Amino acid sequence: NGIDIKKSMKDVADWQKGEPIPYSALCKTFEDIDSTTKRLEIQEYLTSFFKCVIEKSPENLLETLYLCLNKVCPEYENVELGIGESLLIKAIAGVTGRSPQKVKDELAKVGDLGKVAKDSKNSQKSISSMFGSVDKPLTIPGVFKSMKKIASLSGHSSQDSKVKEIQNLLKSCRGDEAKFLIRSLEGKLRIGLAEQTVLICLAQAFVITDNEYQKLTKAKKAEELTEAPNIIKSVYSELPSYDKIVPALLQSGVRNLREHCKLTPGIPLKPMLAHPTKSITEVLNRVEGHKFTCEFKYDGERGQIHKLEDGNIKIYSRNLEDNTFKYPDVIERISKAVNPNTNSFVLDCEVVAWDLEKHSLLPFQVLSTRKRKDVIESEIKVTVCLFAFDLLYLNGESLLKKPLKERRELLHDSFQKVDDEFSFAQHMNVSNTEEIQAFLEESVKVNCEGLMVKILDGAESTYEPSKRSRNWLKLKKDYLSGVGDSLDLVVIGAFYGRGKRTNVYGAFLLACYDPENDEYQTICKIGTGFSDSDLETHFQYLKEKEMSEPKSYFNYDKATKPDVWFEPCQVWEVKTADLSISPIYKAAIGQVDSSKGVSLRFPRFIRIRDDKKPEDATTSEGIAEMYRKQFNNNNDNDIE
Ligand code: ATP
């Protein structure tokens, strides 16, 4: 590619075998990656770095990987970096002897707190250097340990300890280290390094360090390099824990990884997701020639229930959050639904609010009023019932590769209905438009959102963790006359209210997420759908998240600049009349028009999506697809 990887690596890999890796080596690699936009060059830099780590200090590989991914632990442990701007400003000011206001002013000019930290640090004469003593250089394990500590500290009283810990790190920073350190603490490295790329590099580094690799033919080498990332990706979607995967890789390489890392009760897997559809005709076109099944689409919260080998029971959210303490009632009762021969399992189900008197489903709004943390069983006001729709693991065996038909049979054999507590998703193996329509109407009558249509048999009916698959289609009643699915958008700014809304924000700026460029792209201003109490709630929550400047990864136009900006922290479900091309909004820019984005017409707020993180928001690709679908399906609505 014309880049001098060897020369670059010579500088980077300048540490002794077995030594803790200097943090500067990683930062140099980040710099190299940042200096190019070419995917292959990015991959070469990172693969070469991982190769050095594997060969010289493999015991630091896990920490290196986490720092590249800007994480400190598996997602399901719910510990995240993402330290607030004001805290970081305080830390930078303290170490560099500038006032917080001066740091803020610099930030307004430069737009990148990492760069501000680096510049302030480098222009300041450190006291230690004046007295001849130099702080010890930072190492990867040292930085990782501190970051993990900072991320784990919680509560208001922890703020001072966090600042102190950040300052200790900052004091020892040299060169570019402060820039990347601060960006990591903010929650984004901003060097265009997507998680998928990191995994490709990790996989390829293992392939090329394998002794057998050099003996292979050219064609075989290429095959190994292509296959290895797929193995790691598929293993990760079943067992999303680098804590487990990295030691297994170090012990036995990529090829044997599947044997060592499998779906394990106690480690939640990323759930399979469904593809939105707009009409029954669209559904029938997709499933033509396949056996398929329709299930009620319950309107609650996804629950992934694990029974571990030791008998412990856990429940995880769609987002892999541990909800065990939110649902002590579910944990207590689930054993009644488990048949005697069922030991360990992983069950996919929907937790729905339930009316005990009428023995009927209640809408999601009721479930959303239930307390979220430290729930005490005797104080529960909102009763729930479980509706199981899939079984992913049973008695020591993963069922992911089995067809849905078989998984469903095993589900029904292994569990039993318990009135008002546990049931199976209502299903019907229908075949034509009329039958689907009748089943859809039936589902809506009992407070469901519509139907899930799933391929029932054959290779396309396996469970695909983390994938938005076309083998599962969602058909919601209200899609049929609108644009399709509602959107899940991130609130990144607000406009001051007027009149009745004087003391709260009056309208908000929303954005979708673009994983390709790792940025939030503005999509609309929204001021409709909010009750007075919604506006009050939003104000109380969001005022804590205000920032003086937009993040460098907000893609917006001056014409849409709000009065205040927010850290990306909350996802809102929004409905819209339709999508249109816009000269001032940036959603899906370059995907449907080379220079314009997509915007929403008449957006309306529906609800907060607590179970989604900002990066789980609707993607720009999803927006582009919805935009295009409007034209494809115009004459395709089955229900008026
Ligand atoms: P997505 O999860 O697809 O990003 P979303 O969170 O907005 O979108 P929906 O569009 O409501 O969710 O559709 C998928 C969700 O529907 C699942 O995550 C699950 O919680 C719920 N669900 C209800 N009934 C079923 C069912 N029978 N099969 C699968 N999922 C179901």
Brief overview:
This protein has 640 residues and is an alpha+beta fold.
Any chance you could write out the topology, listing elements then pairs?
Layout: H1 5-12, H2 23-34, H3 39-56, H4 61-69, H5 85-96, H6 100-110, H7 113-123, H8 127-130, H9 140-152, H10 158-172, H11 177-186, H12 195-209, H13 218-238, H14 242-252, H15 257-260, E1 273-276, H16 280-287, E2 292-297, E3 301-307, E4 313-316, H17 328-337, E5 345-355, E6 360-361, H18 364-367, E7 384-394, E8 397-398, H19 404-414, E9 422-424, E10 427-428, H20 433-445, E11 450-455, E12 468-476, E13 487-496, E14 505-514, E15 519-526, H21 532-542, E16 546-547, E17 554-555, E18 564-566, E19 571-575, E20 578-582, E21 597-601, E22 604-608, H22 620-632
Parallel strand pairs: 1-12, 7-9, 15-17
Antiparallel strand pairs: 2-10, 2-11, 3-4, 3-5, 5-6, 5-7, 7-8, 11-12, 13-14, 13-18, 13-19, 14-15, 16-18, 19-22, 20-21
Helix pairs in contact: 1-2, 1-3, 2-3, 3-12, 4-14, 5-6, 5-7, 5-10, 6-7, 7-11, 9-10, 12-13
Adenosine-5'-triphosphate is lined by residues 273-274, 295, 297-298, 302, 318, 350, 389, 425, 452, 474, 485.
Give an overview in words.
Strand 13 and strand 14 form a beta hairpin. Helix content is 38%, strand content 19%. Strands 13, 14, 15, 16, 17, 18, 19 and 22 form an 8-stranded mixed sheet that branches. Strands 3, 4, 5, 6, 7, 8 and 9 form a 7-stranded mixed sheet that branches. It has 640 residues and is of the alpha+beta class. The protein is built from 22 helices and 22 strands. The structure holds adenosine-5'-triphosphate (ATP). Residues 273-274, 295, 297-298, 302, 318, 350, 389, 425, 452, 474, 485 line the site of adenosine-5'-triphosphate. The site of adenosine-5'-triphosphate (ATP) has 13 residues, from strand 1 and strand 2.
